[in-house]
Amino acid sequence: MVMRLVMVFVLLVALTGCLKKVTDENASMDTGVAEETATGAAVDVARDTQVIKGKSVSVESTATQMEVVEKPSVQDIQQALKNANLYEGNIDGVIGPNTRKAIEAFQSQSGLKADGKVGPKTWQKLKEYLVK
To answer: Phi first, then psi: what are they for 61, rounded to 5°?
Structure first.
């Protein structure tokens, strides 16, 4: 009986650890976008969500690092793709077939998996075109 309780406890601890892992490139969000950066700052905030300049930002911290997850708007994605000369449509905030094709083309050119979703790796490279 004690052995079963220990096994259940170990299983729960393992599953909890799996749930805490940061989502990968294939994780889908409302617009399929996330950015992760480590600042090395230690803070006492367990999890906080804020809106900064129209972008949803989640802050998760541990004792040694803080991660900021930025979720840019679809308009930002479309503008960056347009600046990269990959998107010719209207900046309408809708990820339709033309936007997906442009995302896939950008991912192919950038050596990323061309899945049509803007995850952390794709956005890291794509956001450079937002300011051009």
So the answer is: -130, 155
- pLDDT tens track for 8-64: 888 777 776 655 443 344 344 444 444 344 443 334 434 444 555 555 555 555 555
CB 104 within 8 A of CB 126: no
Distance set, CA 83 to CA 1, 76, 87, 130 (Å): 64, 10, 8, 7
Phi, psi of 68 (to 5 degrees): -115, 125
- How far apart are the C-alpha atoms of 132 and 130, rounded to whole Å? 6
Task: Kindly state the helix (H) or strand (E) to which residue 37 belongs, with its residue range.
Answer: strand 35-38
The model's pTM: 0.51
DSSP letters of 46-85?
SEEEEEETTEEEEEEE-SS-EEEEEE--HHHHHHHHHHTT
What is 24-129's CATH topology? Muramoyl-pentapeptide Carboxypeptidase; domain 1 (1.10.101)
**Residue appearing with tokens 């541990």:** 62
**Tokens linked to 70:** 């930025």
